[in-house]
Structures are given as C-alpha cells and as structure tokens.
Amino acid sequence: MSTTPNFELPDFYFFPPFFTIQPVLSTREKQLEQWRELILKYHTHHKIKTLVLHDCPLWKNTTIKRELDPEGIRVIMNDFVKSGNGEWEDSELRTRCRILWRRPEQLAEDIYDWAIANGYKNSVCTVYELHSGEDVNGTSFQGADEQLLRRALEILEGQGKCTMFRGQVSSEDGIKFF
Description:
A hairpin with a 4-residue loop joins strand 4 (60-61) and strand 5. The chain folds into 2 domains: 3-99, Arc Repressor Mutant, subunit A (Orthogonal Bundle), CATH 1.10.10.570; 104-177, Arc Repressor Mutant, subunit A (Orthogonal Bundle), CATH 1.10.10.10. It has 5 helices and 10 strands, in the order ββαβββαββαβααββ. The strands form 4 sheets. The chain has a 3-stranded antiparallel beta sheet. It has a 3-stranded antiparallel beta sheet with strand order 8-10-9. Helix 3 crosses helix 5. It starts with a strand and ends with a strand. By secondary structure, it is an alpha+beta fold. The longest helix has 21 residues, at 25-45. The chain is elongated and about 55 Å long. Keywords: Protein transport, Transport. Pfam families: ESCRT-II. Belongs to the VPS25 family. This is ESCRT-II complex subunit VPS25. One of its GO terms (biological process) is protein transport.
C-alpha cells in the first residue's frame, strides 16, 4: 500500500524500522508520535470514526514487506488512547478504538468559532446541521462522531457559550449559541 485514494503516505512509512517498536526511549517516543499522526491523518482523511485493530491497513506495508506484530499494535494503540486521540469502544477486549479526529476541547473551540463566524450567535441550529449540514462543509467537525460532537457541545454549554435542548428525535436536538 503506497497510497490510498487521495491519501499520500509519509516517507517514514517506508522505513522498515518503523514497523518494529524501538528499544531506545527517545527513538520510540518519536516513533509513537509518528504513528499517532499517521493514524489521525488517515482516519480523518477517510472520515473513518472507528479503528478496528484486526482490520487496519496501516499495520502492513506490502511495498517493503513489513508489518507490525500484535505486541507492536498494542503498544501503539495504548499510546494513542493515552495521548487522548482515541477511546476504546470495548475497554475489556480493546479491539475497537473510536478515533477522536480532534479532542473534544478542540472541537468545542472549532464549533464555537464556526457559529460566531457564520452568524449563529443568538440563533439556533440542530445537531444534524452541525454534523451534516451544508454550512459545515470543510470544517473539522463535518461528519464527526455524534457522541464526540455532543461532548464538545457539553463543554460549550458548561462554558455558557450555548444551551442544548431536545427535539422529537436526536437529530433534531437543538443548540442555541451565545
């Protein structure tokens, strides 16, 4: 796999030692940082919300005939979750990881900046509009996991920047920005 549709893999992905967890601490920290960045960029680019450990194409590079062993995947994913970039959907088995394209706090800032820039102050929009509306094309929260989106909105609500209210169905839940 050298590229996937419109996604260019970084040069370090073709360096064979990248697929072996490095024993020297400073080298391993840099390696884990690169894995975090690659996983985030790949999943954000493809709008993939969940990384299924046994089904992730990043673990194997057929071009250089290298792949991560299960222990390497475990080390990388534990670091990924610990860094706040992901959350285990199945904390017991640890086979599915929700990708946090942006941390909830970052997403909250992005949403509020968007609301102010687009005239939604003292106005109402729905969770569906924030997730899939035409006005959010190209934003960091377009197509975001709804649970993550709601967490970001709860942060804004806690800061007094919005209030949320329930609609007839969850996609109609509304947000008023202040």
